[in-house]
C-alpha cells in the first residue's frame, strides 16, 4: 500500500528541489543525540535516493538514514575538535566545510595498512580471467536525434526509432542501407559504421549497451543518450586478453586497500550508531 503524501516546502514556502510531495514518514522528526535535523535537509537528500513507484516513503527513509549518519560523523568530528581544511576536489572546486570535517575525522580514525604481496597474488589467483585488457568493439548505429528537453520531440524520436529498429531486426543484412537512409548521424555516409571503440570512447549509456551485445547482435530496444535514440549493432567484438599478474598487481593492491578502508569506515559508523540516541531513522534497515 502506498503511503499518504504531504507537501514538502523549504523555509521560503516553495517546493524543495522538485519534490512536490513527501510521505507521512516525513512527519517524524529526525533527532540525533538531541540535535534536531531541519526537515528541509532530509527533503533535499531524498533527491539522491530512488524509491519504488507508489512508495515514496522508501526514498525518505533512505535519506533520513544518510542524513543521520552524516550528522553523527559531524558531531564526532566537532567533539574531537577537528579543524576543517577544505581541499580542492576539481578545477576551482573545493570541499564544503562539512565534507572537510568528515574527511578529517575518517583520516584520523581509519588506518589501513597496504596488503601483503601474498594477499595480492591470492586475490589474482582466485580468477585471473577477471583481469583483462579493455575490449574492442566494432559498432554501427542509427541515430534518431532529439532535444532531451523537448518531451514531445523525444516521444516522436522514440516512435521513429522503434519503427526503424523493427525494420533492422527484420532485415539484419540491410542495416547499412537503413542507416544510410534514416540516421541523423554523420556516420550514415559509411552505413552507420563508427569503427573500433573502447571503454570511455562513447557516452556511458551507449557503452553500457555495448557491454550487453554479442557479435552480430542488434540491440533489442533503442538506447537514449544526450544525442537522441540509437539503434546499435555489434559488428565485431574483440575480448580483452587476460593480463599477467605483474600487469595488474598494483591495481589489485589498490582495490584491496579500498575494500579494507570501506570495511573500517563501516565498523566506525556502526560504533557511533550503537553509542547514540537516534529518532526518526532506522539504521538497521540496510
TrEMBL record:
It is an enzyme of class 5 (isomerase). It comes from the Bacteria. Gene3D superfamilies: 3.10.50.40. It catalyses: [protein]-peptidylproline (omega=180) = [protein]-peptidylproline (omega=0). Its EC number is 5.2.1.8. Residues 134-236 form the PpiC domain. Keywords: Isomerase, Rotamase. PROSITE patterns: PPIC_PPIASE_1, PPIC_PPIASE_2. SUPFAM superfamilies: FKBP-like. Residues 1-23 are annotated as: Disordered. The keyword Isomerase applies. One of its GO terms (molecular function) is peptidyl-prolyl cis-trans isomerase activity. Belongs to the PpiC/parvulin rotamase family. This is Parvulin-like PPIase. It comes from Roseibium marinum. The lineage of its organism: Bacteria, Pseudomonadati, Pseudomonadota, Alphaproteobacteria, Hyphomicrobiales.
Amino acid at each position: 500500500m502506498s503511503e499518504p503524501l504531504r507537501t514538502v516546502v523549504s523555509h521560503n514556502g516553495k517546493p524543495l528541489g522538485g519534490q512536490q510531495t513527501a510521505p507521512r514518514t516525513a512527519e517524524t522528526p529526525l533527532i540525533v543525540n538531541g540535535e534536531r535535523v531541519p526537515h528541509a535537509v532530509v527533503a533535499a537528500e531524498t533527491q539522491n535516493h530512488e524509491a519504488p513507484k507508489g512508495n515514496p516513503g522508501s526514498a525518505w527513509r533512505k535519506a533520513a538514514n544518510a542524513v543521520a549518519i552524516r550528522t553523527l560523523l559531524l558531531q564526532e568530528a566537532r567533539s574531537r575538535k577537528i579543524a576543517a581544511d577544505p581541499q580542492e576536489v576539481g578545477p576551482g572546486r573545493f570541499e564544503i566545510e562539512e565534507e572537510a570535517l568528515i574527511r578529517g575525522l575518517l583520516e584520523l580514525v581509519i588506518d589501513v595498512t597496504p596488503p601483503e604481496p601474498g594477499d595480492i597474488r591470492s586475490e589474482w589467483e582466485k580468477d585471473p580471467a577477471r583481469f583483462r585488457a579493455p575490449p574492442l568493439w566494432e559498432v554501427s548505429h542509427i541515430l534518431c536525434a532529439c532535444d532531451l528537453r523537448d518531451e514531445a520531440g523525444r516521444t516522436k524520436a522514440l516512435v521513429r526509432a522503434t519503427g526503424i529498429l523493427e525494420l533492422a531486426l527484420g532485415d539484419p543484412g540491410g542495416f547499412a542501407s537503413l542507416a544510410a537512409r534514416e540516421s541523423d548521424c554523420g556516420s550514415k555516409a559509411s552505413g552507420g559504421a563508427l569503427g573500433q571503440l573502447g571503454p570511455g570512447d562513447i557516452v556511458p549509456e551507449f557503452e553500457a549497451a555495448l557491454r550487453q551485445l554479442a557479435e552480430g547482435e542488434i540491440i533489442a530496444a533503442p538506447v537514449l543518450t544526450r544525442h537522441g535514440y540509437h539503434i546499435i549493432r555489434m559488428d565485431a567484438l574483440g575480448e580483452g586478453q587476460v593480463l599477467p599478474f605483474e600487469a595488474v598487481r598494483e591495481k589489485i593492491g589498490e582495490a584491496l586497500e579500498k575494500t579494507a578502508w570501506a570495511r573500517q569506515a563501516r565498523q566506525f559508523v556502526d560504533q557511533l550508531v550503537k553509542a547514540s540516541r537516534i529518532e526518526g531513522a532506522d539504521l538497521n534497515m540496510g
